[in-house]
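Supplementary material to the annual report.
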Amino acid sequence: MVEPTIPTVDLSPFLKENEHGNKKKAIETITKACSEYGFFQIVNHGVSLDLMKQAIELSKTFFDYSDEEKNKISPSSNAPLPAGYSRQPLHSPDKNEYLLVFPPGSNFNVYPKNPSKFREVLEELFVQMSKIGVVMENIINECLGLPPNFLKEFNHDRSWDFMAALRYFPASNDENVGITEHEDGNCITFVLQDEVGGLQVLRNEEWIPVVPAEGTIVVNVGDVIQVLSNKKFKSATHKVVRKGEKSRYSFVFFHNLNGEKWVEPLPQFTKEIGEAPKYRGFLYKEYQQLRLRNKTHPPSRPEDVIHISHYGIDT
Ligand SMILES: O=C(O)CCC(=O)C(=O)O
Ligand SMILES: [Fe+2]
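Predicted assembly:
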């Protein structure tokens, strides 16, 4: 039996001028994946393989440093999210540590001095991931049948985008949670994982492993797209399961939204087609704050974790 997996989309037709040929197939695949469960992967996306490999290697070197060394870049406090080095609180079910960066040039950023090339590689990776963020947003715009550039204009400020380098510790004998089951709050997420594996996505109530493949980037739709489309596109449910012995390293790029934006189901998916909105509107930064609290003060009861259902309207 063939192992179930998520679809792979070749992004090259979208990166070249005047190439219409294979776009249709890609649009169909992405529309189907996003309507059902919100996950797919991309190849020929323009992010250099060499850069991806370098980033993973430098990340390994960085996270191997002592806590004292890593804590030198503890988060700057006034940022919308804690930029710099953080570790999940001890009582959190999530067992990972991470380095979070905003776009190169952002005043919030605190970069490690060592390894010496890390900053340059993080900045370059950010720029390249950001480019596919914009390309993918445009593709999703088309998949949703929105007017050209609608999402681009709605989400024109890139300063809230962020990227995390993550390290998941090896599993212990009795416990293997890397990140508990969740959906991402932002617009579109891109994951670059090493060869260890452990990312799983929920499809038809079945957990599907996203098998690592060199050069491949995993894409998932987040809550903002789910709300705007009134749940036409699904925010993907996923988790990371830790393996024994080895640490797992990944980079996650969040194509995000300015916190001052108001988010609510678009008329194209409600009034104009006679459907009731499934969410009430909210200020994006309020939701991002609530989600940050989930992380910094993990509720002891799973039902107290805030999800997008917090803004849900029962229909
Ligand atoms: O590390 C990964 O593969 C996924 C991380 C993730 O789901 C997240 O940070 O939201
Ligand atoms: Fe996630």
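The chain has one domain: 8-266.
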